[in-house]
């Protein structure tokens, strides 16, 4: 896509969203939404004035009162400010200000490490307010979404966020006990989860055809979040239509918002999808915690790729009402957080019986209708009660699939270490009867087009149910059907980068009740359930008397998705092999329906025993890479070069560490060049 086409696309999309750039590599020209929550200077004079205010704040602080690691980050940010000149671009001045503000905010609370409970404790102690917390996250969103690594993770912001935070502060002042759970906590939700028009955020699924879709009412999930007191800070970018628009599209891409990047190694590591922005935004600490949705892997996979804890609930535990659908047979929303405790806290707020949700059957033969009585009997209201360090003691886990030792020796080694940790924590690990993987005992999955059939039916029903007109990006075309979406996209093929082959195929199916396609869908869904439950997960759980099935990096995702069963994924390490690029590795555990309590027990115990997660460094390494290339050309070697190379290869290296390595390497190169320069004179 050429630059002219990008500019044309930005003009066309009038919806007030955070970033209208179609590609993450382009500095957005209309990056800020109309809420003015983020209002960066557009002139050099104003940019320096804004910077001066933050510098004065920094100069008023005695850094000796703070831990050296945090004080050093402030000093580094100030050194970046000192490098600015009157000729510096507005972009660079704003970037320096944001970096300094983030460093200063970390003196109050380290948002990359703080759990929700830590935030609430700071509020209760009077060291932090919810308004401060919201502003801190807005600064991080601005810095990492629009500057530096430009993750493009956040799609829109809630114009009422500060107002809500002020109300939360007032409530806690009147009653300090309210500072608990999700109350006052800023979260980001995926941009297919409906919020009421009054909130000022569209619900788009990343599509230009839904760019100005403002549902009249909240989804049931959004209403649950508000009931808990959580502050919906904004919405995250995603793989368009939950990765169900076309074949061959890059994970994390949407026509409306562009490309989400993985904060661990932007533009190299796959960010995965479809909850890409929730994964990247969560890993980068752009909110306390995020929410994704999954049909098959869209919570679990981006959680793994971004080194997060992700919990994909039993289908029906979290209401699907008001969420742009893919497949009612498999869809669910779920929490994606930096630790299990946060995930349990958010899940407690999310869950709840919704009489208006599409009914769901459970049971090995799909014979149990999940009504309100069954739901209440089999679910919990507080999943934090299952945060037990001995949660693995006495559990029996079956090995579903072992990583390939020949093709991925480092992943295989990580799995063996994970198995040993599980054993050390009191779990019994069982292999199949032949000593191999339990997946090998199961039949192959039947051919299925259920997602296509469901999507045609579900998206049509969703659009028909909207009380407000669903307006496209031109703010005048009304979208009433899947065919309308397809037709609108065809009018804008210049920005439809990957096409819409899946939408076009789904449109060909006739989902009128009783039609041939309708009956085929029901037969195929029955086959999926039989394969995944009776002949799959439940077969193994019953045969070996298991509490769950384990594997790495999505080993159980496909079969659990068809069954509608829950899974939890927990960071366990990072790839070390050449070519692995330090990609995160997660342990995944899958259980029977409505066993989220047990999964949280086991996941928490494993997390506490390993403490494996490391935050991404999110440093721009262009200068360091250029210096390394020069050093290689000069055949430079030694400790300085080796250290610079190690920093460059580390996904955890901070901007300060990268800058320090680059400066040292530059000096080393200068000394190696200087004799030749002198000889020339």
Fraction of residues in helices?
A: 40-55%
Mean pLDDT equals 93
Oligomer: single chain
Largest β-sheet summary: 11 strands, mixed
Please give the order of strands in the largest beta sheet: 1-3-2-6-8-7-14-15-13-11-12
- CA-CA gap between termini: 49 Å
Content-based structural category? alpha/beta
Task: Please tell me how large the radius of gyration is.
Answer: 25 Å
Name the features.
11-stranded mixed β-sheet; alpha/beta; disordered N terminus; two-stranded antiparallel sheet; 23 helices; single chain; 681 residues; globular
Describe what this molecule looks like in 3D.
- It is built from 23 helices and 15 strands.
- By secondary structure, the protein is of the alpha/beta class.
- An eleven-stranded mixed beta sheet has the order 1-3-2-6-8-7-14-15-13-11-12, with helices on both faces. A two-stranded antiparallel ribbon has the order 4-5.
- It is globular and about 80 Å long.
- The chain starts with a helix and ends with a helix.
């Amino acid at each position: 896509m050429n630059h002219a086409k990008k500019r044309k696309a930005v003009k066309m999309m009038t919806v007030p969203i955070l970033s209208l750039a179609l590609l993450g590599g382009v500095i957005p020209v209309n990056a800020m939404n109309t809420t003015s929550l983020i209002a960066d200077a557009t002139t050099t004079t104003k940019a320096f004035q804004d910077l001066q205010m933050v510098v004065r704040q920094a100069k008023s602080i005695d850094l000796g009162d703070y831990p050296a690691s945090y004080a050093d980050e402030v000093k580094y940010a100030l050194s970046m400010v000192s490098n600015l000149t009157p000729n510096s671009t507005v972009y660079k001045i704003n970037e320096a200000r944001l970096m300094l503000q983030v460093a200063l905010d970390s003196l109050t609370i380290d948002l990359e490490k703080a759990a929700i409970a830590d935030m609430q404790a700071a509020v209760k102690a009077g060291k932090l307010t919810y308004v401060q917390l919201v502003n801190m996250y807005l600064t991080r969103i601005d810095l990492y979404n629009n500057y530096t690594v430009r993750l493009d993770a956040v799609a829109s912001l809630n114009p009422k966020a500060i107002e809500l935070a002020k109300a939360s502060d007032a409530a806690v002042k009147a009653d300090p006990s309210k500072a608990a759970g999700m109350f006052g906590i800023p979260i980001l939700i995926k941009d297919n989860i409906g919020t009421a028009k009054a909130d000022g955020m569209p619900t788009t699924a990343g599509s230009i055809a839904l760019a100005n879709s403002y549902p009249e009412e909240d989804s049931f999930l959004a209403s649950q979040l508000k009931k808990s007191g959580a502050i919906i800070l904004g919405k995250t970018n995603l793989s368009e239509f939950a990765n169900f628009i076309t074949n061959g599209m890059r994970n994390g891409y949407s026509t409306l918002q562009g490309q989400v990047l993985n904060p661990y190694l932007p533009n190299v590591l796959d960010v995965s999808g479809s909850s890409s922005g929730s994964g990247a935004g969560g890993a980068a600490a752009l909110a306390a915690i995020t929410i994704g949705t999954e049909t098959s892997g869209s919570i679990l996979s981006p959680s793994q790729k971004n080194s997060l804890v992700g919990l994909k609930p039993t289908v029906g535990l979290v209401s699907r009402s008001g969420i742009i659908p893919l497949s009612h047979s498999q869809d669910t929303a779920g929490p994606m957080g930096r630790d299990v405790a946060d995930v349990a806290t958010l899940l407690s707020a999310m869950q709840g019986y919704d009489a208006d949700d599409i009914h769901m059957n459970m049971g090995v033969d799909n014979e149990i209708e999940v009504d309100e009585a069954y739901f209440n009997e089999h679910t919990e209201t507080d999943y934090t009660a299952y945060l037990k360090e001995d949660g693995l003691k006495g559990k029996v886990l079956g090995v579903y699939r072992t990583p390939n030792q020949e093709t991925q020796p480092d992943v295989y080694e990580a799995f063996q270490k994970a198995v040993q940790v599980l054993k050390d924590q009191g779990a019994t690990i069982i292999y199949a009867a032949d000593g191999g993987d339990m997946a090998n005992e199961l039949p192959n999955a039947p051919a299925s087009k259920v997602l296509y059939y469901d999507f045609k039916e579900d998206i049509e029903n969703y659009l028909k149910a909207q009380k407000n007109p669903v307006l496209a990006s031109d703010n005048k075309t009304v979208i009433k059907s899947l065919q309308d979406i397809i037709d609108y996209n065809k009018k804008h093929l210049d920005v439809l980068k990957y096409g819409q082959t899946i939408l076009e195929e789904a449109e060909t199916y006739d989902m009128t009740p009783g039609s041939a396609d309708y009956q085929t869908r029901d037969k195929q869904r029955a086959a999926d359930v039989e394969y995944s439950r009776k002949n799959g997960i439940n077969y193994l759980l019953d045969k070996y008397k298991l509490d769950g099935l384990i594997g790495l990096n999505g080993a159980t995702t496909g079969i659990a998705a068809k069954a509608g069963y829950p899974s939890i994924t927990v960071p366990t390490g990072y790839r070390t092999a050449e070519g692995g690029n330090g990609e995160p590795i997660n342990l995944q555990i899958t259980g029977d329906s409505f066993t989220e309590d047990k999964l949280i027990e086991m996941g928490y115990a494993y997390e506490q025993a390993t403490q494996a997660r490391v935050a991404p460094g999110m440093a721009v390494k262009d200068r360091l890479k250029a210096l390394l290339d020069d050093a290689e050309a000069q055949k430079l070697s030694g400790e300085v070069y080796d250290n610079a190379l190690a920093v460059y290869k580390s996904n955890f290296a901070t901007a300060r560490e990268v800058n320090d390595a680059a400066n040292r390497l530059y000096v080393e190169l200068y000394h190696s060049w200087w004799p030749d320069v002198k000889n020339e004179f």
